[in-house]
Amino acid sequence: MVRLIDIYKEYDNGTEALRGVNLRIDDGEFVFLVGPSGSGKSTIIKLITSEVYPTSGTMMVNGFRPDNMRESQIPLMRRTLGVIFQDFRLIEKKTVWENLSFVMRAVGVSGREVRRRIPYILKLVGLEGKEDHFPDELSGGEQQRVAIARALVNNPRMIIADEPTGNLDPQRSREIMDLLNRINELGTTVLVVTHERDLVDRFGKRVVAIEDGKIISDETGGYYNG
């Protein structure tokens, strides 16, 4: 569960990114976060992942208090999250299998668990038989599926997808969103940041809209007017 309570964030350059934000995302929810550029979407993601900290207010992320916790707890908190980026951020000189095993070994997962988990995740995202391919041998949609697999491979409680379809054509975008929807149906909380109005409207999920650092609407099945 994520809770932001009366969150303000002012950067060192004086930019007021968030002004009194209150947001609750319960376990198992699927939420779209929408709004124009500079509205505060990226700051919310950075707060949840502890890249930045609030100027004031209270936070809770999967049982942790990012606004009031020891530095040693940050890696533990981040392991409850899987983050998917628009630009994939795959390691070009590693195969699909190596990209996934790298993030598993980084948190101390055994070789036996790596061999058990990766085939399951590749099947889930529709990449069976691609484990020995390098990123440049895959299509854009397949590379995004690898990025999703990487976010899932350590079994996080929540997936954060930051413009996950921004570099894909409409058909591949729908496929990626269908995949995220299926992951959500398996019990993982999903937060998707997007500008793509058609995708938001198509899925009929909860839509949280932010503008000028304030949440201006929060509706299930809402229509995105951005």
Structure commentary:
This protein has helices at residues 41-48, 74-78, 96-105, 111-124, 140-152, 170-185, 197-203; strands at 2-10, 16-25, 30-34, 56-61, 81-84, 158-162, 189-193, 206-211, 214-220. The two termini are 27 Å apart. Helix 6 (170-185) links the parallel strand 6 and strand 7. Helix 5 (140-152) packs parallel to helix 6 (170-185). The protein has seven helices and nine strands. Strands 5-6-7-3-8-9 form a six-stranded mixed β-sheet, sandwiched between helices. A three-stranded antiparallel β-sheet has the order 2-1-4, covered by helices on one side. It is globular, with a radius of gyration of 17 Å. By secondary structure, it is an alpha/beta fold. The longest helix is centred in the last third of the chain and has 16 residues, at 170-185.
End-to-end separation: 27 Å
Shape: globular
Stretches where pLDDT falls below 50 for ≥5 residues? none
Determine the strand fraction and express it as a percent band.
Answer: 25-35%
Order of helices and strands: EEEHEHEHHHEHEHEE
Oligomer: single chain
Overall pLDDT score: 92
Radius of gyration: 17 Å
Q: Please, how many helices?
A: 7
Q: Order of strands across the widest beta sheet? A: 5-6-7-3-8-9
Q: What's the count of strands?
A: 9
Biggest sheet architecture: 6 strands, mixed
Question: Keywords, please?
Answer:
alpha/beta, 226 residues, three-stranded antiparallel β-sheet, 9 strands, globular, six-stranded mixed β-sheet, 7 helices
